[in-house]
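Sanity check. The docking grid for adenosine-5'-diphosphate depends on where the pocket ends up, so I'm generating a full predicted complex first rather than guessing from homology. Inputs follow.
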Amino acid sequence: MASVKLHDINKVYDNGYHALHDINLEIEDGEFMVLVGPSGCAKSTMLRMVAGLESVTDGELSIGEQVCNDLPPKDRGIAMVFQNYALYPHMTAYENMAFGLETAKKPKEEIEKRVAEAAELLEITDLLSRKPKQMSGGQRQRVALGRAMVRKPDVFLFDEPLSNLDAKLRVSMRMRISKLHQQLKAAGNPATMIYVTHDQVEAMTMGDRVCIMNKGHLMQVDTPMEVYHNPKNKFVAEFIGSPAMNMLYGKLEIHDGKLAFNIGDNVFTLPDEKQTQASVWEGRFVYLGIRPEHLELAQDEDENTVSALITAVEELGSEKFIHTEVEGHEVVCKLMNEEKVLQAGDRCTFKLNMSRCHLFDETTEFNIFYNK
Ligand code: ADP
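Predicted complex below; grid placement will be based on this.
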């Protein structure tokens, strides 16, 4: 059992590239933390630093109560699962899983017991005599997971472990890893898990909390629901959610005595509960963010409606995504169980549910309504 703490961590590579900037993050004992962000944001760098595979340029890294900036990987109580499995091709699944314990000179019975337990939990008992090339990608990844489990680490580190699997297998493996986390907790052996992915769906479904990163900076660390409903800034708002949150650029001005967002000839009035908070931004340009599910078809032009040209329609069976254009911005609307036939080239009227909108400062891109 161990928490992982990063205190004022910076990473500058030998070539002078500053990859991580002033990172402060506390991952609790037994927590499932997902590091997510676009490619190149330095999430692997951060994970590899925790693993001891990358040096810490500045700051303090602790696992449990121990500062481990200079501790070798093998003494950190961690086990890592990689994207490419990293299994030995000439060894069976059993031998791959047992290898680390044999090198650590564990007794034979202990090794057999641990491998058998892990194999049962991962449902790979009947594959133990197979070599990696005789197994599917998903089975190999389960063996790689088993090899990490038998070491009974305090901290599991996952580096995009599902990227090489097809979409369906990814879903089942992602549930298996979440289940493993719960099973270990239920059995009284909770493990801290740090999981790197660029896939926001994995982040949202697996993490107790998610840490959203951009260009080596932490953007927001919170539960999946908080980052979705209460994004701290424009980056998080647009990164989390699919289709992405719609973003319009316009000016906040008073109309009929109320503060409203103006773009072209369109006026969207802020609801009463948001008036006071936004009042400081009167007369300034801001971004208005609204999720596709917070727009709906309207019969007539009314308050907070907009007439838009449909540019594309995506039918997904139970839902459809209507792509439109509003003042040069693409705006997507998600409709559930909508019977009306809509097609590209049509004009339609949408109503924005302004009580669900976000406003972002033009310069800092901070969410004006962020409450925490
Ligand atoms: P991510 O995992 O988010 O895709 P990485 O942590 O792999 O990002 O890389 C973060 C940044 O650091 C990238 O710009 C990458 O090119 C750079 N980087 C990674 N490893 C090195 C290295 N050994 N030397 C110099 N730059 C590196």
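Relevant for the grid: The chain has a mean pLDDT of 94.
Also worth noting: Residues 182 and 190 are 8 Å apart (CA to CA).
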